[in-house]
Design a protein that fits this description.
alpha/beta, D-Maltodextrin-Binding Protein, domain 2, 2 domains, elongated
């Protein structure tokens, strides 16, 4: 028993990826969580009608709010046109109203600051809350279901393709293919199209099940959601092929997940990018899950079509193209051998 335990210990110590998975990965992820969930210096932007009493305006300016005086005819249309505004505050004959874009961390912070300002003038203010998208009290699944659609469409295809490609290379299949007249680009496209068949089935199944069985609402056409997930799946195959270059076994693919997939989850939309301190939100632009999750949100939450999703489609296409050329370079190395 002692000899077996000793052998396991030394085998693990000799595998640098296992050591990194056990010792370094938790520290890196915890550090990332610390920065992402730490104190944010984000200041909510609130549009206030020009005719509000000066006393109320002074109370707002005393809080951590970016107050914009503007003539707001319809708060719903105003928030739809001004995406940088978090809330619209109105005082009418019917009472006091706060209109927010959607239930989110940013909205909650704006409400807290507004209520703190109101409490200075009235300790028990009666405020009506409205949302342009979503509704108060909706479930966490309704708020973040789009994130899991993009995450699942990427993660499972990535795992399947990366492990299969490692097996193809370790078994010598890939080297034999490279000895044939088949071009490197055709090999990559062949793998992508092959796994793409499963991606089509997966995308249709996940979307239909989530919308019609689990009841996740979608204001837009779910066809755009399926197309987004197909683009995500194609990118996942190429991402898996790139990662497989650095792995010699299926276990090593799993060992890379904390460094390649887990960080992307935090930048997928679970945390508003504006709330991430130190400018770390900009890291989302180098992560494919961000583009997929944002495109799905544009469709399901905001009800947009092609005009809302095309920038994120373009981001996925560019990302996939870069991975495609990286994989071609990597195959050239094996052909050289």
């Amino acid at each position: 028993m002692r000899n077996l335990a000793t052998r396991v210990i030394f085998q693990t110590l000799n595998d640098k990826r296992s050591v990194a998975l056990i010792l370094i990965a938790p520290l890196l992820i915890l550090t990332l969580v610390y920065f992402l969930l730490g104190d944010s210096d984000y200041v909510p932007v609130v549009a206030v009608d020009e005719n509000v009493p000066s006393q109320l305006l002074e109370a707002f300016e005393a809080e951590t709010l970016d107050v914009r005086l503007d003539a707001v005819a319809n708060p719903f249309d105003y928030l739809a046109d001004h995406k940088d505004v978090d809330a619209v505050f109105e005082v009418t004959q019917a009472g006091t109203t706060i209109t927010l874009r959607e239930p989110s961390t940013k909205s909650s912070k704006a409400v807290r600051e507004i209520q703190a300002a109101l409490s200075i003038l009235n300790p028990t203010p009666d405020v009506e809350m409205n949302y342009v998208f979503g509704e108060e009290g909706q479930s966490t699944f309704d708020s973040f279901g789009y994130v899991f659609l993009s995450l699942f469409s990427f993660f499972f295809v990535f795992i399947l393709s990366a492990m299969a490609l490692v097996k193809e290379r370790s078994g010598g299949t890939l080297e034999r293919l490279l000895m044939t007249p088949i071009k490197r680009g055709q090999i990559i496209l062949g793998y992508t199209l092959g796994y793409g068949v499963f991606a089509v089935v997966q995308s249709i199944l996940i979307v239909l099940y989530t919308v019609y069985v689990l009841g996740l609402s979608s204001l837009g056409n779910i066809g755009w959601v399926m197309l987004t997930m197909l683009l995500m799946a194609g990118t996942a195959v190429l991402f898996g092929a790139t990662i497989s270059v650095f792995a010699r076994s299926e276990l090593q693919v799993v060992q890379m997940i904390p460094f390649t997939i887990v960080p992307q989850v935090f930048f997928s939309g679970l945390i508003p990018l504006d709330l991430i301190p130190y400018g770390l939100g900009n890291l989302s632009y180098i992560m494919p899950i961000f583009y997929g999750a944002t495109a799905i949100k544009e469709v399901m939450v905001y009800g947009n079509g092609f005009t809302g999703v095309w920038p994120y489609f373009l981001g996925l296409v560019i990302y996939a193209s870069v991975l495609y050329f990286l994989n071609m370079r990597a195959l050239g190395k094996y052909r050289g051998h």
